[in-house]
């Protein structure tokens, strides 16, 4: 009963997700994840052997990428700039290797190193969960969206709860009882929570909208925040605090002598920025572009200009510059310093 109820909840979740959020990347990833989890649920339910062999094979194949899809989905919620690029594909394939190994064994094909894979097969999921927890916590301070800051804490709490349920059930002598406890304490509550969430979800909620604006946009500042906004603009435009490497929103709030949550609210709700890094990078890139276009600084290295603009590393500077400006710092400098052709 619990197993088929779990499948029914997955199916309802898929339908709700397709109906409401199929147009955005996190929604499409959630659809793929729920389909994969349905396949996994079929294969681990009690008495799965009564299911036709061909259906079980399909279900096992569909369930193979579930860990990688979960990783993708969580990162798409946590990061505004998440894209499925080469590194993400490598991670997905790495997380699918062990389930694919088990799938090939299920087909009756003898595989080498079987004992080692079975012994070490839990390591990739641990690394995946660890990475999600690290991203959720390490980027929480710079996240200006209060709702997403709460979601980050849930992404830390959920793996711990799953670990506790797993530890409670692994020592049970009755395997079927262990399955019932895992479903009753772990899977079904999570599915019910997901289902209630999906009933209210929209593309805007899934992406934690509204969308950020740029530094040049006219802010809509709450009158009670106007004094703080003037001090913030003075710190940015006159004191140029954005040039300090490693500047955090807590450090800036301390300098402005205001609570950090009040400054986060101003920059997010009043000025439209989704995270502190994008707010700083608007100023830092303006400073960097002026330096790159300055002929008197033509002999300075890109690295020196990156550090002078407040960036912590050349890699992050190049990535942010290319994402925002559309070309590399080197190409930008070359175009800016090349005199126009004469007819």
Task: Walk me through the structure.
The protein is mainly alpha-helical and 343 residues long. The N and C termini lie far apart (81 Å). α2 crosses α3 and α8 (146-170) runs antiparallel to α9 (175-200). It has 17 helices and no strands.
Offer a concise description of the structure.
By secondary structure, the protein is mainly α. The protein has helices at residues 2-21, 25-44, 53-63, 66-78, 86-106, 114-120, 123-138, 146-170, 175-200, 203-206, 226-237, 249-256, 260-270, 276-292, 302-308, 314-325, 329-337. It is elongated and about 75 Å long.
Key words describing this protein structure:
mainly alpha, 70% helix, 0% strand
């Amino acid at each position: 009963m619990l197993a088929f109820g779990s499948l029914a909840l997955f199916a309802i979740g898929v339908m709700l997700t397709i109906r409401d959020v199929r147009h955005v990347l996190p929604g499409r990833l959630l659809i793929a994840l729920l389909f994969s989890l349905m396949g996994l649920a079929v294969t681990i339910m009690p008495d799965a052997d009564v299911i036709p062999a061909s259906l079980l094979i399909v279900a096992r194949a569909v369930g193979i990428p579930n860990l990688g899809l979960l990783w993708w989905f969580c990162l798409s919620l946590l990061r505004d700039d998440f894209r499925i690029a080469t590194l993400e594909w490598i991670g997905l394939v790495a997380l699918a290797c062990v389930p694919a190994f088990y799938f090939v064994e299920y087909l009756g094909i003898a595989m080498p190193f079987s004992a080692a894979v079975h012994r070490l097969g839990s390591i990739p999921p641990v690394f995946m969960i660890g990475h999600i927890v690290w991203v959720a916590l390490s980027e929480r301070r710079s996240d200006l969206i209060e709702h997403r800051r709460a979601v980050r804490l849930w992404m830390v709490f959920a793996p711990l709860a799953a670990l506790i349920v797993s530890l409670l059930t692994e020592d049970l002598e009755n395997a079927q009882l262990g399955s019932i406890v895992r479903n009753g304490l772990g899977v079904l509550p999570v599915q019910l929570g997901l289902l209630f969430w999906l009933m209210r979800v929209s593309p805007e909620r899934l992406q934690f909208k509204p969308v950020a604006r740029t530094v040049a946009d006219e802010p809509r500042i709450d009158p009670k925040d106007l004094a703080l906004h003037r001090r913030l603009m003075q710190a940015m435009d006159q004191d140029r605090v954005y040039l300090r490497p490693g500047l955090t929103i807590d450090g800036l709030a301390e300098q402005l002598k205001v609570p950090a949550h009040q400054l986060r609210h101003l920059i997010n709700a009043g000025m439209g920025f989704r995270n502190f890094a994008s707010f700083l990078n608007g100023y830092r890139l303006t400073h960097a572009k002026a330096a790159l276009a300055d002929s008197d600084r033509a002999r300075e290295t890109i690295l020196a200009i990156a550090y002078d603009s407040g960036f912590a590393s050349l890699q992050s500077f190049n990535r942010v510059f290319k994402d925002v400006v559309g070309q590399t710092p080197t190409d930008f400098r070359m175009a800016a310093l090349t005199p126009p052709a004469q007819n």
